[in-house]
Amino acid sequence: MPHLPATGGRDVHTVRFPVGRPPATVDVLIVGAGPVGLAAATELTARGIRVAVVDRARTATLVRAGAMGHTPRVVEHFRRWGLLQRIREAWTYPPEWNRGTRLVTSLTGHELVPVPRPSFRGSGAPEHTADEALRRPQTVLQQVFLDHLAEHGVSVAGGWELQELTEDGEGVSAGVVDVDSGERRMVRAAYVLGTDGGSSTTRRLVGIDREGDHATEKRLRLIVRTGDISDRVGPAPSATNIVFNQRASGFLAAVSTREWRVYAGPYPLDHEPTEDELLAIGRAAFGFDLDLELVSATTFYHATRIATTFRRGRVLLAGDAAHVRTPGGNLGEGIGDVANLGWKLAAVLAGHAPDTLLDSYDQERRPHNRRVADHSLERSRRSQTALAEIRAGGIPDDADLGDAAVRRRAEIGERLRRDHTGGAGVTFDERYDASDVIWYEEGQLASEPGWRPDVYEDDPRPGHRAPDGRIDPHGSTLHDRIGTSFALLVLTEDPTGRPAEDST
């Protein structure tokens, strides 16, 4: 039997960015080799655009505690790029651990809201899409994207830091420096895309401010490492859990077979919890005493900070460089940025559209991000209020199996069920209803139902996501057929009428 790496699946603990020098000229220079930057390179390469990617880091690590959950809408893009199967295969813990998101008192404690087990009778995909949600660490995405870009000869260079941007009427000159040798190079590009995170150098160099309130407290994402705990949790523990007890709350999620993400806080901004404090929270989330190693602790905030514009001249922003908010799907918003911007850059660079088309990127994505950010912050506040009220009423110890404890857990479960609302609108409703390039017929915009985070219905109005679903007996979907092309969809109930889809 072959030896499995430490993850129990594919070994993506460390992703090494290629070593080399960025090219002297390129259509688009992408600053930042995180999942959004590499996704942008994938999208633009698919459209025939010459791109290069630089990042000041030389590696990315699994234990950084980055995003893991990818919505069906994001998976639609993975599929469109032809990379979904590679991402599916790159699991870092056994697929049998995927049992939905469980609401529990601890990993070994009591289930507060039952989650249906997977069934052969259903695909598990939401009704609006042919694709499922996936859980894969950011390093998995980065490795898959890097392999794909290498196959297409795309330059990705780690260890190069952006230090200068100078724009003129024909393009942008970007000064990048090797972080080890100090070697300096100038890269000439028609456009620069900053995907370099919340503290974006790209955003700072072009003088784009951010708006939104600063947080008044902080939280920590922990990665803790266990030994072999299968004697306590079984061979297939639940990989994704939201914990509610007197010591721990929030996600307890597997990153690999030995590493788990745990949330801690909130804390005052100036408070630095000790390692012992954080490990105690980790043990409370597991629900039993075990040896834990604190591998990493990443600070995050329940707050919204959105760039005042996503475009300044020939420099554009995407992902965390453009917007950070209360955690929960922000990587997906970055992928949405990329999908929105890709075809527009391709059209401008090919001479099929004026440069002003790029203004619509800001007009469409910034309001969408604001809408989702406002919802996320409000949801977070409601969750914190609910947790405080639940704790005030008491959460029985896991060992307490008495009638009163059983009744109290049922009360907590009912409260959580009552508070839960779906997120179909957040996942799928990327409507663009304030864009100069979208034209409505008379009355269409006025009759459009308001955006709701919990509701999504396929809508034929301009600016909405194209519906997806299987369109032939062999399983291909509408999005498969369209790919990266433009399409005119003609619907008819007459099977002998015009074709259902025409792609050019």
Automatic annotation (TrEMBL):
It comes from Streptomyces cavourensis. Residues 362-381, 454-478 have a biased composition (Basic and acidic residues). InterPro entries: FAD-bd (IPR002938), FAD/NAD-bd_sf (IPR036188), RIFMO-like (IPR050641). This is FAD-dependent oxidoreductase. Coiled coil: none annotated. PANTHER family: BINDING MONOOXYGENASE, PUTATIVE (JCVI)-RELATED, TRK SYSTEM POTASSIUM UPTAKE PROTEIN. Residues 362-385, 449-478 are annotated as: Disordered. The keyword Flavoprotein applies. Residues 26-375 form the FAD-binding domain. Its cofactor is FAD. Keywords: FAD, Flavoprotein.
